[in-house]
Amino acid sequence: MESPRKIELHYYFSDMSHSMNALVRNKCEAEFIAVAIEVAEILGINLELDCEALQEGGIREVWKALGDNSVQIALLISALALILSVIPHTDQELIDLQKEDLRLSIEQRKQALGKIKEDIENKKITSETIETAVRVASRSYKVVTRKSNFYKILSNYEKVTQVGYSELSSDGRRLSDERVVNRVDFQKFILTSQDLKPRKDSSAYIEIVAPVLTDGKAKWKGIYDDQSINFSMNDHEFKRAVVSKLLSFKNGDGIICVLLVHKKVDELGEIVTSGYSVEVVLENIHSGVSGKTAQGKKYSQAKKMSDGQGDMFGPNNT
User: Fold this and answer.
1) Residue 242 near residue 218 (C-beta atoms within 8 A)
2) What angle do CA 124, 133, 122 make, to 5 degrees?
3) φ, ψ for residue 145 (rounded to 5)?
4) Nearest 5 degrees, angle CA 87-CA 89-CA 95?
5) 191 to 84, 187, 201, 289: CA distances (angstroms)
6) Coil, strand, or helix at residue 92?
7) In terms of Cα–Cα distance, which of 196, 200, 183 is closest to 269?
8) For position 318, what pLDDT does the model report?
9) Pseudo-torsion of CA 114, 115, 118, 119, nearest 10°?
10) How far apart are CA 188 and CA 95, in angstroms?
11) How many other C-beta atoms are found inside a 10 Å radius of the C-beta of residue 223?
């Protein structure tokens, strides 16, 4: 079977025209290119994309992929067509990425990429090779996010009723059935939440720079891990003690606490810190003297009991 050299994006319109808002098209183009570049990078493929002249029939964009060899390009085009067209099983694909058991481990990723590289070197690209490439690339935050951006742009442009993807030969012949995504399914590709599971630091030290001395949702200021941060104080007992002036702070005072470092995926697919929150203050450090808080003692006791119950099911107790 002839290997694909090009991929076609076909925008279907509700009004039989052959024109598209330039800003919308350019934004979609940017997101498509971002997905293609990220997939190529994940698969270790050197990629250059050439955009050929637009064709009518709605609007058809044809992208010619250039690379080190034809086998790599064939794999990339086939993988891209699937990644962009296969509707996620859930409305929030990012939820799956947040679950450790559903994310590829470093070793799984290494093995999968090794098998793909071996197939490329042997010039033997099978459907299994393509499925493996899609599985690995689809676990990338950047791929998921830029794909979400692509469909979000189209969902806000009512003129587009469908978008299709085709694998083409070097002379532009279609090598497979066009994969079409209907407008009603655009929403299924769009991330409804970009928040990730927060990282917990169970013994974080924060030097207090500016506490909040009134009730409300204002954030405290402190220094954590040599960085200035603003954080929410969610330990209500500790907060009440400060507001009622039972506790005070001076230069150099701090707390040891359970700190949540909140993460999210930004519009470029990068993981960034979105905020900090103190859940429990374990110790209050005043004038160099550390004192455990009542809520800190309760937290430590509960943690010891929880850890002890976990040990009951360990290898030495079976």
Assistant:
1) no
2) 20
3) -70, -45
4) 115
5) 14, 8, 27, 47
6) coil
7) 196
8) 43
9) -150
10) 13
11) 14
The residue ranges of every structural domain in the chain are 6-189, 199-310
pLDDT of residue 67: 85
Give me the phi and psi of 232, to 5 degrees please: -85, 135
* Chain-centre distance for alpha carbon 74: 26
Q: Are strands 227-233 and 55-56 parallel, antiparallel or unpaired?
A: unpaired
Render pLDDT for 120-178 as a digit per residue (tens, 0 to 9): 999 989 999 999 999 999 888 899 999 999 999 999 999 999 999 999 999 999 998 99
* pTM score of the predicted model: 0.82
Characterize the bridge pairing of strands 271-286 and 289-292. Answer: antiparallel
Residues 6 or more apart whose Cβ sits within 8 Å of residue 99:
none
Identify the burial level of 171 via C-beta atoms within 10 angstroms of its C-beta, where 0-12 means exposed, 13-18 middle and 19 or more buried.
exposed
